[in-house]
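Exercise 7. Predict the joint structure of the components listed below.
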Amino acid sequence: GDSVTQMEGPVTLSEEAFLTINCTYTATGYPSLFWYVQYPGEGLQLLLKATKADDKGSNKGFEATYRKETTSFHLEKGSVQVSDSAVYFCALGPNQAGTALIFGKGTTLSVSS
Amino acid sequence: DGGITQSPKYLFRKEGQNVTLSCEQNLNHDAMYWYRQDPGQGLRLIYYSQIVNDFQKGDIAEGYSVSREKKESFPLTVTSAQKNPTAFYLCASSLRQGGTEAFFGQGTRLTVV
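Solution:
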C-alpha cells in the first residue's frame, strides 16, 4: 500500500544553518504531497504542499519539490531560526475517494542560538 | 473564525470507563478524520468519514467508535476495550477525501489511570 518514509531525528542545528529533512514515498498513481509542522502540545499546521510532479511548494522560507523520478519531497530551508524548532511531518494524499492522508513518523528539529 | 475545535484539551479517566472526545468544525468540510499520536509513531488513522451517517475504519479502529450525525461534528468514543488508550488524539477535516489538505484541531491529551 501507499506509504511515507522520512528521516529519523532528532535533527539538531545552530541558528542560520541549512536544513534538509528527507521524505520519500510509495504510491500508485499521482498523489498530492504535504509537509505539516507541529509545535509542542498543539495540532498540526499545513506548511506547504505540491499536487503534481515538479511542483515546488514554499512557505515561510521552507521549500520542497515534488520529484516523481525519485519519489521524493525533501524539505529545505536556507537559514533556520530558533522558532523553527518543532516536529515536521511529511504526508501523502492519494488522489482517490475513500482515502485519508498518510503520514510519516515525524522528524524533530531543534535549533539552538 | 473558521476552524476545528476539539474539547477538552486534557482529559483524565479511570481504567474501564468509556470516554467521548468532541470534534466540531465550521469549515463546511465534507470529510473528517481521527488520528492517534504516540511518541515516535507518527499519526495513525482511527476512523474517517466522507459524509453524514457514513464512516470507515482506519488502521487502528479496534476499541474506538464514532458517529457522524451532523456534518460539523465527529465525536470519538474511546471504549474500555481499547488496551492502551493514553495518547494524544487529533481530529482533522478536509473539503473532500483524497488528495486535499487536512486541517487539524488542537488535540486532546487523554490519560487513563
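Discussion. Chain A has a mean pLDDT of 94.
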